[in-house]
From TrEMBL:
This is F420-0:gamma-glutamyl ligase. It comes from the Bacteria. SUPFAM superfamilies: CofE-like (SSF144010).
Length: 189
């Protein structure tokens, strides 16, 4: 960004894909299918993935959620989904399990061998501040997809979260092979 990036102006915010930030800071986790336990394999059969994403239908991701949140919470989330889904209420699992279950990424090409856990907010904020000092503009780490997204962290000089979400709402960074890991959001004056 310093050498080849576009001209940055005061008020700009450099937006970095959470996946790239995790890769570059070595915070990914090996996706090891050999350690997936029976309950993760069983639970993932009931996940209804979106058309372009497997989500927790991948046993290795479900195992990470169980390891991270604990069996009692994951089982409670599964029970909530089982009780609410027949009434047309979707997302019960994620409401009980929380953002960690929703935000786990990876397990598909070209990173089928890696999982991308959600970036710890404090660590992501620290990275944003460090990069902002070097780039001399605001920095935000984001997890955006075609269904919405999250501003994981931002530096003190970055645009407000609401402004960033509005600018990124149509997913201009795209996904997978057609995506870009960086974007520049410039306020309209």
């Amino acid at each position: 960004m310093l050498t080849y990036g576009t001209e940055r102006r005061p008020g700009d915010t450099v937006v970095i894909s959470e996946k790239i930030a995790l890769l570059l800071t070595d915070r990914t986790i090996p996706a090891d299918p050999t350690r997936v336990q029976a309950d993760a394999r069983w639970l993932c059969r009931f996940v209804r993935p979106r058309p372009d994403s497997l989500g927790l239908a991948q046993p290795v991701k479900m195992q990470w959620v169980i390891d991270t949140l604990g069996r009692p919470r994951v089982y409670a989330a599964a029970a909530a989904a089982a009780l609410t889904r027949p009434f047309g209420i979707r997302g019960g699992f994620y409401r009980v399990a929380g953002p960690a279950a929703r935000d786990i990424d990876g397990g598909r090409p070209p990173y089928e061998h890696l999982l991308f856990p959600p970036f710890d907010v404090a660590e992501a904020t620290e990275l944003c501040e460090e990069l902002a000092a070097k780039l001399e503009v605001g920095v935000a780490i984001v997890d955006i997809n075609d269904y919405g997204g999250t501003i994981r962290a931002r530096s003190a000089g970055a645009l407000p979260e609401r402004t960033l979400l509005g600018a990124l709402a149509d997913n201009p960074m795209r996904q997978r092979r057609t995506g870009t890991p960086l974007a520049l959001v410039r306020p309209v004056l």
